[in-house]
């Protein structure tokens, strides 16, 4: 059952195909930030094309001089060829620098923008998506999009310029040969339209499977202790193996399709090159062209076919990138939370539920049904109830992660009342169940509560939370903390989390089983200090522990609603 839960959220997410026009509009809008790099890449590419065409002319001239057809200096021609080679080398070095430095900056900017938007998304719509899937999109899909904007599109423009310029020069030298060689191009263009459509579907399947694998890896590593304790290693490995098998089959299917198209294009190129070669051989036999001209023919045919070949290679990249754009657009279609200036109540605030009804999906079981309750300012409330009764849902409503379907929730004090929303969230301090520390130092974790906290404020918060022990650590408050509080016991991590919350300016403090890992004596001492120093605070405890309940001034029992 545990392993099945890994995929519940993934299975609940329905992916919709997005019209290509919308994807292209999105690309156009986001390409504005990368136009500098795109233009630079185009300029470098055109420089490379010019050098290649001049190289053809210079080589023809050198061969004609060497065979006595034309008079001239081989030394001068050699210097020109060397200069062209040097220019090409420098232009390609510049291209690599642009790709490595500027490309990474643009990718980071795009990823940050999308990440920032995700953090502002409506929680109800976001919670259905697995973290592994989101990470996969932020990493793999953003990288594909960046490559499309900064590399593939500029390269495609350069390729067309090279194609036209090379064809123009060949047409100038031999119109009949040029028309014979170019006949394969329309076939390639027509085939590419079908190719892109099919490849987009194949790439979508591959990217989705890759996201599923990412989700399993992330979930399994996050809960490795549970997997070990339940002896589910083999089942987890089997699940991963099955997903990898699916991915392998999808990649094989995509590759077979791609190879078929590639083979047809290669056959067309081979025929074109053969035509050019035989044309040159016949011309030499009939003494109507020089060896230099034949060399130029073959080089120009290569310069015409190479762009076409490049286009055939760019097509999978374009298809993959369009799939990536589609997956990112799906994230941007998630509704945002209400945005605006925070509403902070100056005096101690309370919370009031007025006939609140809530369910996660329209038509599903009501978690709360016409629920009313008041958490007065400076009250101490225990929320109790059986598992599944709705305690967690109640907290999500308090924090404004979700909104009632009926009724309303008010944040109030003696002077003002406001509807609970994301704008009033700053009045809420939430201490989740379990270990909620991030990697870094203890100080960095504490300052998440208040970046401007003084040493005295930190010391006081640690004392109330019974976390004075950190001053006995070798590095004290600057001691490192691994991911999820690694290096500390669960109880030690919980106390630091409580201290962090005490530094927050909000006056409504919500403790979600935040003392569950503490021993009885430490829990008792912390509760004594919290309730003794609760002036200016409203305390709400979700708990099943009698030691917590006896410190509360009121008790709210949540009962499971009927189906």
Mind explaining what this structure looks like?
This protein is an alpha/beta fold and 563 residues long. It has 18 helices and eleven strands. The strands form three sheets. It has a five-stranded parallel beta sheet with strand order 6-9-10-3-11, with helices on both faces.
Per CATH, the class of the largest domain reads: Mainly Alpha
Span between termini: 23 Å
Q: What is the count of distinct domains?
A: 2
User: What is the beta-strand fraction?
Assistant: 5-15%
How much helix is in the residues? 55-70%
Radius of gyration: 33 Å
List keywords for this structure.
five-stranded parallel beta sheet, ABC transporter transmembrane region fold, 2 domains, alpha/beta, 563 residues, elongated, four-stranded antiparallel beta sheet, Rossmann fold
